[in-house]
Each structure stands twice: as C-alpha cells, then as structure tokens.
TrEMBL record:
Organism superkingdom: Bacteria
Signal peptide: 1-28
Comp. bias (Pro residues): 591-603
Chain spans, region Disordered: 584-659
Comp. bias intervals (Low complexity): 641-658
Record domain Glycoside hydrolase 123 N-terminal: where: 45-175
Ranges of residues in domain Glycoside hydrolase 123 catalytic: 307-540
Pfam families reported for this sequence: GH123_cat, Glyco_hydro_123_N_2
Coiled coil regions in record: none
Keywords carried by this UniProt record: Signal
Organism: Candidatus Manganitrophus noduliformans
Name the record gives this protein: DUF4091 domain-containing protein
Length: 705
C-alpha cells in the first residue's frame, strides 16, 4: 500500500512538473549563436547547443558574430539586446561603445541569382540599435519575433589599436516581455599585432553620388551640390572608408569650385574630401585612425583632350600627395571599334599632359592587344573570369566567354600593378546562372555579392586577390538600386539580387531617428572581413612567410571558380595565420579558455529556408554581357556538400582552443542527456518535500468525484 501511495504521489508530482514545464516552454525563447560567415534564414533550425561566442582578432580589426533569437512556439515581443564591456584579467577594457549591435532586416527574393541561390526571405540590411554616425537611437530595438521564426542580431566588436593583447570576456544579455533574461558569454582573444588603418589592397568601389539623395527621398542631385546633399555623399564615403573601401567616384571638383582657363578652383573639394585622402578625417568612434582613401578617379568629362586641364589635375594631386592614387577611368568594358578609338584619343591626351598619369580600362589584355591599344593602358582591370577562365562555355561545345586565350591563369601576361573586378558575369547577366541558358553552369561559383548566395561568396575574393597577386579591386556601384526602386523592397538588377547595391538608404521614416545615414548590408560587412583577411596574408608576406600565407590560401582556394564554400576552413586558416603572426612579432600567444568542438555545419555558407523555393528555373534572355562571359566549374565544390569534420588549429601556445576558427567559434554544451531513471530519481528527490501536499490534493480530488 505504501509503495502504491509513493508511486501515485511520484506520478502526480512528475505530471505536475511536466505540465508546468510545458506551460513555461509554450512561449519559450531560444537564444543561440553563430559565426559571421553564414546567413541565418527565418526558419533555420536553432543550434541550441551553441550558447556563447568566442572571437579572435588583431588590434585595429573588426570581428563579428551573430546572436539569434528564436520564438519556439508563440510570438515574442519587446526583445532587446545589450552588450557589456569586455575585460581582461589585468584591468584592460574594450568598452561597450566599441561594440555595434544591429538588427538584421530581411528582403524577399522572388527570382534567384543562380541555381546556388534560393527564393524567399534573406537577411541583408543591418539596422543599428544606435548608429555610429550621429549616435542616434534607431527603431531596430526592441523587436518582435513571430512564432516559429528566427531573428538574428549582428554584434560587431572593434578592437582599438591601443588595446592590450590578451583574453577579454563579457556578455550579451537578451530580454523579452514576460521572459527570463538570457545571458550569452563572449570571449575575445586579442592577438599582439595591429592591422593597418589604410588598406594594403587598393579599392575603387564607386558610390554614384547622383543617386544618394534620390534614394533618401531628398530630391535630385544638383550641380553644384547643395550642402545637405554633399554632407550625405561624404557620409557614404566615410562609411566606405570605415569598411576599408575607397569611394573613387566623387563629385567633380570643377562642379564644386568652378573652372577658369582650364584651371580648377580646388578649394571646396579639398575642404570636403581632402581629409579622406590625407587620413585626417575622424571616423565614427575613432575607429581606423588615420585611414586614407586608396584611389581617386579623376573627373574629366568635357575635357577629354584638354591637356592643360588634365595637367592641372596631375599638378594638384602631386602637391597634395595624392598622385599615387590618381587614375583616369578611361573607358568601361570597350566592345566596339568606336570604344577603342575613344581610348586611344583619351589615353594619348592624358600621357601628353603628364606621362606618369595612369589610364585605367576594364578589359582583358587579350582584348586590348587585338585592338592595338595594350600599350596605351597603364592600369588593366580585367573581370575576375578573364584572369583565370573556365575551359568551357554556357552550352556543350559553346565558345568560352572572353575567348579561349583567357582559359587558365593569365596573371603573367599583365603588368606588375593590375587590378580586377566582378560584375554580372559572375552570376549571369539577364539569366539564371546554371539555368536553361547556362546548361554547363559557366555562371556558377565565381565570387559574387548577391543577396541570395551563401555568405562566403562575398568574402572570398580578397583571398584570390592575394593568390593572383592583384593590387586592387573595382566595383561599379554600391547604390545602383537607389535610382531604380526602393532598395528595401527589391534589388534585382542585371540578373542578380543586389548587383550594384551594397547599401540601403537609412531614411528616418524607415529606421527612426532624425538624421539620414547609410545602412550597411551583411555583404558589405563580409567584404570588409575579406579585406582584413588580406591584411593577414600580406603581413605574413612582409614577415618573410609568403610560403606559409600561400599554404593557407591553398587550403581555401584552388582558382577563381574552385574554392571551398565551408567557412570553417577559412576561419581555421585565419586562426593559423593570426597565431603565426603573433609568434613572428615576438609576443606571447594569449591562451583562451578551451571550448568543446562543434561539428561543421551541414550547409556551411547559408542555412536553408525550408519555405524557400529552390534555385532552379530558367533565365529570361540569353546573357547580353558585353565582354563575352567565361565558363563555370564542373568540379562545383557544391554548397550543400558537407566537407567533413575540420581539425582545429591548436595554435603555437600548445593549448587547444576547440573550434575557435580565428574569427568566431561557438561554445557548445556537451548535449549529453541524463539516463531516464536517473532523471526520474532526481525529480522524485526534488518533489519529496511536497508529497504530503500533493497527496492531500489527490484525496480531495478523489472525494469530489
């Protein structure tokens, strides 16, 4: 009888516990973490064992991770995120004001860029909790999360150049209405070397200043520009510099100050933009102190053959110390005899004005040679595809875009200083890469900034720039959609989602606050990660370790269209490089707390959305790419392929750090469940003091029946 009573009591207690626990879990909030080189979709399965973030970074570097809030069942409201200072054991602090917190906004993709993409909602725009430009609190927090959905938060740490090397700890705290706070531990290892503020890899990432005020609903750009338009244009230039990129396309100095007798009045231009070239413009939060723009594309419209005008630009640039960054964007993607004649005319006048002035053209050396103009071009900027083309075209037996002469590594045919660029040929201009008009898959696997492609596509190009010994990268526009439609609604241009657009217009009526600001995309953040990866590689080279740097690149990249989509390989290579540089610099390698090893993700570049359509289907029209495109890899290294477990680097210190892949690793719980009977025993032990009360309730209930 006593056994029966105890069993009944235990069963009642267990039932009560389970029912209470279930009631609490019905609207439960799950908080988990992920590294930065993955895109979290609305219905990505929560990785509940990932409960903390472990970052590694150099001084003067940005490093990010993602904190994801999942509404398991039942919507969440009033969700907010706060981050503490990060402190080491010696009293050093990285203050919380050096940590940016962004809510990730989703954009709906209705047509895939390539079959490696997918339709549905994709995270891209990053709306700051408190913006870096004016310090205004925006409307991104608190937020709500629909039942069964994810809301990722991007947390970006800037390590000041003055920070002491060591291991710092802190936390992020997530709160929500009616929910208990969740604390997420953060561990940051700061290596004992510093990245330069001015990028070693040059860039010319244009921001069409005519479109900036249009995108912000401030009317058409005027010439000369209004003070409000000019302030906003400069803010975008500063945003680019903050992301280690240069806005080479700036308002014409002759439009700002006027021109007389072929001589520009430079005063207004120098006052506005000179500090960006000189490294005297303070960036938000004092980040990247002394950063300088690395290129300037001269404005020569209407003065193509005016040697006095062109010579005046050269003279002024030399006097200001900008000449090493000055070039003429002579013509873009020439494809007709008339184009080549224009190049000859402009380049001849340019060199007559000053033989040291550089004529830059986005073309291949094969194309220039066949048109008898190679000798006039000082700066070749071929598309990435024509630097190392695929050996096949879009259709079986079809012509290789760019010509057979571009197949294989072409670097040795170019001058010492050569840049390159990516364009719509990376995904298929006016077609779906890998679709019916691209049966051979020529337009797959090239580096690409498309929204619906996995995150590594936006980060890998700089690793390739090092591999091919390229000195700069060019991109035609970062705000193209501003002049086409509301970028918050759609960015499908030239057959790709996000082609030519890496910013969103931060209008106060959209993001709150009172001031207009540029809103960065995840793709822009990943591009900066790539620029910082390049600095690691270059540092190794300057320290006499170019061979070691090449080994790390080879771990990730085979050629322009054959590379690993698994970000953990990239993080592993980056950690090895950071550790090696620390040792070469003569400092001790900080030993972080060991963490358990997680298995690599099944889909390393982007987590699939079960509700999204697959990236199949046909394009609209055959590719009208003016440069005749190159082919795609038959050895696809498919995104969905699980590359198997990765063995993490233990570093030079000899202490294992788990899978802390340089940029971000994720602390996991062991995931081991207690044996069922042991769990029951603990429950009975816990509820034993309440047995009398429970038994009395059961007897009352029995009498009522």
């Amino acid at each position: 009888m006593r056994k029966s009573v105890f069993a009944t009591t235990a069963l009642a207690a267990l039932t009560l516990f389970v029912s209470l626990w279930s009631a609490g879990a019905a609207g439960a909030m799950t908080v988990w973490t992920e590294h930065a080189t993955v895109k979290i979709r609305r219905t990505t399965s929560p990785k509940t064992s990932q409960t903390a973030a472990v970052l590694k970074a150099a001084k003067n570097e940005f490093e990010a991770f993602q904190l994801v809030v999942t509404a398991n069942s039942g919507a969440l409201s009033g969700v907010d995120v706060n981050v503490s200072d990060l402190r080491d054991d010696h009293g050093n602090t990285i203050p919380a004001d050096q940590i940016m917190i962004y809510n990730q906004a989703y954009i709906n993709v209705t047509t895939v860029s390539t079959i490696q993409g997918a339709t549905g909602e994709w995270p891209d725009a990053l709306i700051p909790k408190k913006d870096a430009y004016f310090g205004e609190v925006r409307n991104a927090f608190p937020f709500s999360v629909a039942s069964g959905r994810n809301q990722p938060v991007w947390i970006e740490v800037y390590v000041p150049s003055t920070a002491a090397a060591g291991v710092y700890t802190g936390s992020a705290t997530v709160t929500a209405s009616g929910r208990n706070p969740v604390v997420v531990p953060i561990q940051l290892t700061v290596w004992n070397f510093t990245l330069p503020s001015t990028s070693t890899l040059k860039s010319a990432h244009s921001i069409d200043y005519h479109l900036v005020p249009v995108g912000h609903g401030l009317g058409s750009y005027t010439s000369p520009p209004s003070s409000s338009h000019l302030r906003l244009v400069k803010l975008y230039a500063k945003a680019n510099l903050l992301h280690r990129l240069t806005t080479n396309y700036l308002p014409a100095p002759q439009a700002m100050g006027g021109v007389s007798n072929s001589q520009i009045s430079w005063g207004p231009f120098d006052t506005t933009f000179g500090p960006l070239f000189d490294g005297t413009e303070a960036l938000p939060g004092g980040k990247l102190p002394g950063a300088k723009m690395t290129s300037y594309s001269m404005s020569f419209s209407g003065h193509d053959t005016n040697t006095t005008f062109l010579r005046g630009i050269a003279t002024h640039a030399k006097a200001k110390g900008w000449f090493d960054r000055l070039f003429q964007y002579t013509l873009d993607e020439p494809s007709t005899s008339a184009h080549w004649q224009t190049i000859r005319t402009r380049a001849n006048a340019l060199h007559q004005a000053d033989p040291e002035l550089m004529a830059g053209v986005t073309t291949s050396i094969q194309n220039a040679t066949s048109n008898n103009a190679a000798g006039l071009i000082d700066l070749f900027i071929p598309t990435i595809r024509f630097m190392d083309n695929k050996p096949y075209g879009r259709e079986p037996g079809g012509e290789v875009p760019g010509g057979a002469g571009t197949i294989g590594n072409q670097r040795s045919k170019y001058p010492q200083e050569t840049w390159w660029y990516q364009a719509c040929g990376s995904h298929g201009c006016g077609m779906v890469g890998g679709g019916v008009f691209d049966s051979e898959g020529y337009h797959l696997d090239w580096p690409s900034y498309m929204i619906d492609l996995p995150a590594p596509f936006s980060r890998i190009m700089e690793w390739m720039s090092f591999k091919y010994n390229l000195q700069g990268e060019l991109y035609y526009d970062m705000v193209y959609a501003y002049g086409r439609r509301d970028p918050w609604v759609g960015q499908y241009d030239f057959g790709g989602n996000g082609d030519g657009t890496l910013y969103y217009p931060g209008r106060p009526n959209k993001i709150g606050g009172t001031s207009h600001i540029p809103i960065e995309s995840i793709r822009l953040k990943l591009l900066r990660e790539g620029m910082e990866d390049y600095e690691y590689l270059h540092l190794l080279k300057t320290l006499g370790e170019e061979g070691y740097a090449d080994e790390q690149v080879a771990q990730v990249v085979t050629n322009v269209y054959t590379w690993s989509k698994n970000p953990l390989l990239l993080y592993d290579a980056r950690e090895k490089m950071g550790t090696r540089i620390s040792v070469l610099q003569g400092g001790a390698n900080p030993a972080p707390t060991p963490s358990p090893e997680p298995p690599p993700p099944a889909d390393p570049g982007s987590d699939p959305d079960p509700d999204a359509g697959a990236g199949a289907g046909s394009g609209t029209d055959p590719d009208p790419d003016s440069e005749s495109d190159p082919p795609i890899s038959k050895d696809p290294d498919p995104i969905s392929k699980d590359p198997g477990p990765i063995t993490p680097s233990t570093g030079e210190s000899g202490s294992s750090s788990g899978v802390q892949f340089g940029g971000c690793s994720l602390l996991r719980t062991t995931g081991e469940a207690s044996p069922p009977m042991e769990a029951v025993a603990y429950l009975l032990l816990f509820f034993s003091p309440f047995c009398g009360v429970v038994w009395r309730k059961i007897r009352v209930f029995a009498r009522l029946r």
